[in-house]
Write a structure and sequence with these properties.
Layout (H helix, E strand, L loop, with lengths): L11 E7 L3 E7 L5 E8 L11 E2 L1 H19 L6 E8 L5 E3 L9 E2 L7 H7 L2 H11 L8 H11 L1 H5 L3 E3 L1 H10 L6 H4 L13 H6 L18 E4 L2 H7 L6 E3 L2 E2 H8 L8 E5 L3 E7 L9 E4 L6 E7 L4 H10 L10 H14 L7 E3 L14 E3 L7 H24 L8 E4 L6 H11 L3 E4 L4 H13 L6 H8 L2 E5 L3 H22 L20
Parallel strand pairs: 1-5, 5-11, 12-18, 18-19
Antiparallel strand pairs: 1-2, 2-3, 4-7, 6-8, 9-10, 12-13, 13-15, 14-15, 16-17, 19-20
Helix pairs in contact: 2-4, 10-15, 11-13, 12-13, 13-14, 14-17, 15-16
């Protein structure tokens, strides 16, 4: 983090990034340098198997704490904050009532309670209609699946819902008192992929027509239409009246934050989710990705994703070590050990890890697995298998995108895993593609701040913001020999996936699906 004092920097921009497990507030100068930052963990509740929830009021308090701490750390006069931008995880459900209070705990994008609705959505007839109308097929945490689940299992909660929001919309509501969403978030389930506006046809497809009046207005991602309220100012330390822009889905913000916003640009997020995305000037429809609205009108972000990312390493280190002397997980040592294993052992001799602790892009029934483990393997080999399995999952998604998009530039990489040179190089070798890392560890927050800068007139548009703020600091070229060896290992990985998919799973006793409402009423 840049340690320069803020007193002499003039206007600054505040970017807020509310992810699945942490909320970050970062101050940036107009050239995109991070000046101060605060990160507050967000509690995730697991009340039942497959459920992942959070208390919405606690999330707001954590966000306010992050903002206040960031301002204090920077020693900034709140009057210097020219504007605020907010991004957050998409999908899931944040429901508020007529008085704008939470109806129930928020449901996160890693929740899979509605998996049978997602299974129903993959049936050819429904999948074909969903793709044609919305540009995507719902997965377990999509609003289409979750709201149908709530309709059938928690009808009282849905009956008390006045507005259906996303994570950043809830935080923006608490900051300004205004209700709205932006195109990147709205396109999660219920917008027409061509018009980029709410679609009654999409709601009808999922049996959710009654929710049409509960969807918020859609405004531009960089639109400055609200200001910090007196109550929010007291909670955060911001100045009342500070402009707040609509904001965006965190992966769109990350694409902007690393400068991968031009058509044909590929960006990767090595974080909670495996995110692999390409910007285009027209929607290209395929069941292997989601064609969602980008932050510019008449542009689309094609996202091939799964909840199979860097959190696998977090889980592995917490379970198996290494640990610091105080007992906390030592991720740096784990990555160093994985690098040692990469250097000493051919991929053909390494264990295969399937990174599906929280879901997979192949089938909801496919679990994580460690295959090919032998007595001579040690913990470093296991950690190497974990980061390699995550890289292989990225390749699965990128290979699909490369079939329909010309990827002419190096991929831009961000997310927690991008901090590791070992993991970044492994990803380049696995993809056979150069990978670039830019000068921020907080791409989502910087993207949110850049949208704020556009909204308050500091930048003319997103292109100018990128040109002024984004710099490449590390480039990893694919090593041809390593790529060849990893190609063979990837074929083993794919063979393991295909083999496990043939194992019979217990038959569902429920007939849950988008048209199953009557059996629950």
């Amino acid at each position: 983090m840049n340690e320069r004092a803020l007193a002499d920097t003039g206007p600054v921009l505040l970017g807020i990034d509310a992810g699945q497990t942490v909320t970050k507030a970062v101050l940036f100068d107009p050239d995109g340098h991070a000046l101060a930052a605060s990160c507050v963990p967000t509690r995730v509740d697991l009340p039942k198997p497959r459920w992942q929830e959070r208390d919405m009021e606690s999330l707001w308090r954590e966000c306010a704490q992050a903002i206040r701490s960031c301002l204090v750390q920077g020693g900034v006069d709140p009057a210097q904050v020219a504007a605020v931008g907010v991004c957050g995880h998409n999908d899931g459900a944040y429901l508020v009532d007529e008085r704008l209070r939470p109806v129930r705990p928020a449901i996160l994008a890693t929740d899979s309670r509605a998996h049978r609705y997602a299974d129903a959505a993959r049936k050819p007839d429904l999948a074909g209609q969903a793709l044609a109308i919305t540009g995507q097929v719902p997965f377990a945490a999509s609003p289409a699946a979750l709201l149908a689940w709530l309709r059938d299992h928690e009808p009282d909660a849905l009956a008390h819902t006045r507005w259906i929001l996303f994570c950043k919309d809830w935080l923006r509501l608490r900051l300004t008192g205004d209700l709205m969403t932006d195109p990147s978030e709205a396109s999660a389930s219920f917008t027409d992929v061509h018009t980029q506006d709410w679609s009654h046809q999409a709601l009808k497809l999922y049996g959710l027509e009654e929710l049409a009046e509960r969807l918020p207005p859609i405004l531009g991602s960089a639109a400055s239409t609200g200001v910090v309220s007196d109550a929010a100012a007291e909670a955060t330390g911001l100045l009342p009246g500070t402009p707040v822009v609509t904001g965006a889905h965190d992966v769109d913000a990350a694409a902007i934050g690393v400068g991968a916003a031009a058509p044909g640009s590929l960006s990767l997020v090595l974080g909670t989710f495996s995110i692999n995305q390409v910007v285009a000037d027209e929607p290209r429809i395929d069941s292997r990705w989601q064609a969602r609205s980008f932050v510019r009108p008449q542009q689309w972000l094609h996202m091939s994703t799964s909840p199979s990312g860097a959190t696998n390493l977090d889980w592995a280190v917490r379970q198996f070590g290494p640990w610091h002397p105080d007992g906390s997980p030592d991720f740096a040592a784990a990555l160093k050990g994985a690098g040692t294993a990469l250097a000493r052992r051919n991929p053909a001799d390494a264990p295969i890890y399937l990174p599906f602790l929280y879901g997979s892009p192949h089938a909801d029934t496919l679990d994580a697995a460690l295959v090919g483990l032998r007595g001579w393997h040690d913990r470093d080999d296991v950690m190497r298998a974990v980061i390699q399995g995550v890289a292989f999952n990225h390749r699965f998604h990128v290979d699909a995108l490369r079939e329909r998009f010309d990827i002419l530039r190096p991929a831009r990489l961000c997310g927690g895993g991008a901090r590791s040179e070992v993991w970044s190089q492994l990803l380049a070798d696995t993809l056979g593609l150069a990978v670039e890392v830019t000068d921020t560890e907080e791409a989502g927050a910087r993207g949110a701040a850049m949208l704020a800068g556009v909204g308050c007139g500091l930048y003319a548009d997103i292109s100018e913001a990128i040109e002024r703020t984004v710099r490449v600091v590390r480039r990893h070229e694919a090593d041809a020999a390593a790529t060849t060896a990893l190609d063979t290992a990837y074929e083993r990985y794919r063979a393991v996936v295909q083999s496990l998919l043939t194992i019979p799973t217990p038959k569902a006793t429920s007939q849950e699906g988008f048209n199953a409402a009557d059996q629950h009423r």
